[in-house]
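hey
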């Protein structure tokens, strides 16, 4: 399936398809990334990691679980978060040694605990510190390893916040960033209200030929292509829309090739992907930990099932490893057409 969308070039790193999986704290581990890549993601991003954690826990079982990267999910970026510029370079070097293809710097996380520790979106109010981090990581990383930045549109909607956004945005490119991903909500908005595609369009117009990726409210393949068409961004990163719906990537590839939107995955196709996702999780963690971690994925996978609420409840009730297979054996034994997530979202909105 060939795409009519232009590939992305991050310095010398080629990305063949500009729709990829975003870094998702608590979700985008190795099993999720491999699943997304197998179903068409143009690139993947590992869970955000604290700079200090990477340096202190870069060996042993925990590192193999959380900092694992393999050829199947490439190109794969690693996202770093922290507060002190001096702690970023050694962490970036460790991530390169572990095999990640590029380093992404998180200046976007809106979680209160993160902000309180001077990390993530807090740095949007500290241009000097943010840009020192970019410069130090770019200097520490090998020349063939791109450095990118993830930002929100500011701390809030004040003119001062917008000015600081563009100071960091322009300064990141001046210091060697290969691309900037923009989630067009403020830190204060968190995930409430619609993301501002108008702001994203303004940013891309300002950036010109520089590579800008978009993020926010991408829950369908059509939305991914619409964001690129309406704002001019060079690519998109799918975050919450990819949880339990890795088929969004193959659907985006079909639309990009001007083919009809593929039907949603059938119950049996869902079963096969879910079972393989669970198998990889159990190989990565112990059985109990895999079951707990996969329960939240099951809740999202259930949205595509024709009996979504009942299947969701069944996954919520899973507490022991064997119960996972029992859910598949009961609810996924008979094949039937699946559903698009947009259909489920509409039902939930109607119910509310």
């Amino acid at each position: 399936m060939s795409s009519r969308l232009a590939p992305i070039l991050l310095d010398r790193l080629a990305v063949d398809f500009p729709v990829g999986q975003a870094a998702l704290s608590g979700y985008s581990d190795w099993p999720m990334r491999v699943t997304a890549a197998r179903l068409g993601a143009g690139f993947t991003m590992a869970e955000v990691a604290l700079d200090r954690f990477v340096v202190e826990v870069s060996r042993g079982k925990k590192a193999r679980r959380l900092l694992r990267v393999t050829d199947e999910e490439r190109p794969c970026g690693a996202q770093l978060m922290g507060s002190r510029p001096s702690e970023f370079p050694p962490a970036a070097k460790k991530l390169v040694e572990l095999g990640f293809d590029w380093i992404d710097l998180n200046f976007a996380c809106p979680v209160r605990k993160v902000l309180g520790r001077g990390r993530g979106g807090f740095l949007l109010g500290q241009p000097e510190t943010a840009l020192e981090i970019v410069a130090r990581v770019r200097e520490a990383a090998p020349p063939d390893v791109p450095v990118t930045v993830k930002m929100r549109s500011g701390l809030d909607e004040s003119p001062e916040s917008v000015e600081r956004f563009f100071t960091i945005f322009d300064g990141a490119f001046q210091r060697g960033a290969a691309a900037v991903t923009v989630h067009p909500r403020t830190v204060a908005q968190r995930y409430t209200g619609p993301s501002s595609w108008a702001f994203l369009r303004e940013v891309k117009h300002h950036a010109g030929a520089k590579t800008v990726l978009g993020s926010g409210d991408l829950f369908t393949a059509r939305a991914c292509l619409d964001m690129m068409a309406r704002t001019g961004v060079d690519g998109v990163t799918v975050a919450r829309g990819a949880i339990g719906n890795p088929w969004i990537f193959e659907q985006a590839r079909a639309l990009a090739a001007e083919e009809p939107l593929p039907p949603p995955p059938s119950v049996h196709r869902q079963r096969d992907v879910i079972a393989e996702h669970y198998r990889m999780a159990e190989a990565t963690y112990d059985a109990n930990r895999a079951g707990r971690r996969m329960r939240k994925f099951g809740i999202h996978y259930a949205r595509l099932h024709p009996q979504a609420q009942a299947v969701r409840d069944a996954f919520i009730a899973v507490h022991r490893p064997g119960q996972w297979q029992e859910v598949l054996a009961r609810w996924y034994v008979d094949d039937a057409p699946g559903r698009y997530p947009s259909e489920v979202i509409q039902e939930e909105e109607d119910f509310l």
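Residues 346-352 have pLDDT under 50 and may be disordered. The chain is about 45% helix and 10% strand.
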